[in-house]
Amino acid sequence: MEGLLAALEGSGLATWARGARWGYAALSGAHVLGIALLVGAMVPLNLVRLGLGRVPQEPIARVLVPAAGVGLALAAATGAVLFAVRASEYAALAVVQAKLILVALGTASALVLHAAYGWFMERAGARRRAIHAGVSLVLWLMVLALGRLIAFVG
Amino acid sequence: MTMTRRTTLATALATGLGLVLATPALAHHGWAWTTGGNIVLTGIIRSVSLGNPHGVLEVDAEGELWTVEVGQPWRNARAGLVDGDLAEGVEVTIEGEPSADPDERLMKAERITIAGKVYELYPARS
């Protein structure tokens, strides 16, 4: 594990990001954009699934599911580089460990659920959709809060 | 299947929350975690880790090892510091705010003096 973290820190990409002024700013900015897309799509989508507004879920899901997916991919890709910049320090932080566990859980459960019930959850019943919407809402907001905490507890 | 997944999730959430609550307060973002007053620390740099998101020095001040947060690359460069200024064995005088928890021996540098030359990391702060 320590060897892996050291290798991440020593990688060319991490070394570049550690010293880059605008590169690091762009990386942080892109990470925030990813989070904004993910959370900004996930919150209304899940609230609709929980019954907010009594609007048809399918067309809303067709827009918001891809937006959340693109946001997650962007946040994960940029987050991996940001992590690599100080891999061993971040890996030792409880907030980072908790965040990574929740990101892995959220991503895995989204992939499993969408594989089982369709990309827009069209094959799931309203009750199942509502339950998973509630879980998703809590989980991703916790990820957001834990991520923000990193800058304050490191 | 659903039950198992839900139980796993609940366990993970509880673990996550427990971990967060158990984390010691060791903040570095902003100034909310510092005392609000400045101290001056003189010592020899024992280790240097520069770069984003912020640099860290370990400074030996008469046998007490302090962790000193310095700037990220652009802030250090703006202050006039060049590669090699902050290096092991260099004597530095650091002025800045210490952590509100004195046992941490942690401070955030506002200005650094090396060989009589002052480098202002936060020119607006005094």
TrEMBL record, chain A:
Positions of transmembrane segments:
29-48, 60-85, 91-119, 131-153
Which UniProt keywords are listed? Membrane, Transmembrane, Transmembrane helix
Q: What is this protein called?
A: DUF2214 domain-containing protein
From TrEMBL, chain B:
Q: What is this protein called?
A: DUF5666 domain-containing protein
UniProt keyword terms in alphabetical order: Signal
Q: Which residues form the signal peptide?
A: 1-27
Query: Cross-referenced InterPro entries, in alphabetical order?
Result: DUF6152, TAT_signal
Q: Name one Pfam family in it.
A: DUF6152
Q: Does the keyword Signal apply?
A: yes
Keyword Secreted part of the UniProt annotation: no
